Amino acid sequence: MPLDQTHKVLGFTGSIGSGCTYISEVIADAKEYHYRYYKLSDAIRDHLKEQGNCKEDVKLLQDTGNELRRNIGSMYLVEKTFKKIEEDVEKEGADIKGVILDGIKNEGEVQGLKMLPNFFLFSVHADKEIRI
Question: Whole-prediction pTM value?
Fold first, then answer.
């Protein structure tokens, strides 16, 4: 893995529309922090594209993600994302201080990520009226 104990991993979880992606992107866009942004659901989208399905549907993404976790393992999306991080660092020689993982939706992912020494989980909540 290209990350060592000096790199921070910021994980974001929350209801759809709660603001996780917005907060994650703001941090990643602040160039002085040197954080790279990754969305766990991109691994699901990649899987669907490999299957010939390019449909963007929340239910399909959720169902496929749950199926992948059930059939391959609860850390599958995280492992695919870390492989992408490794490829990016090797290809770009990126000077990063940490990564942002957006879209953590599963307890198994949290438990696995908690094994990392510098993992921080943020749960973002907003009232339904605000999310709408």
Answer: 0.86
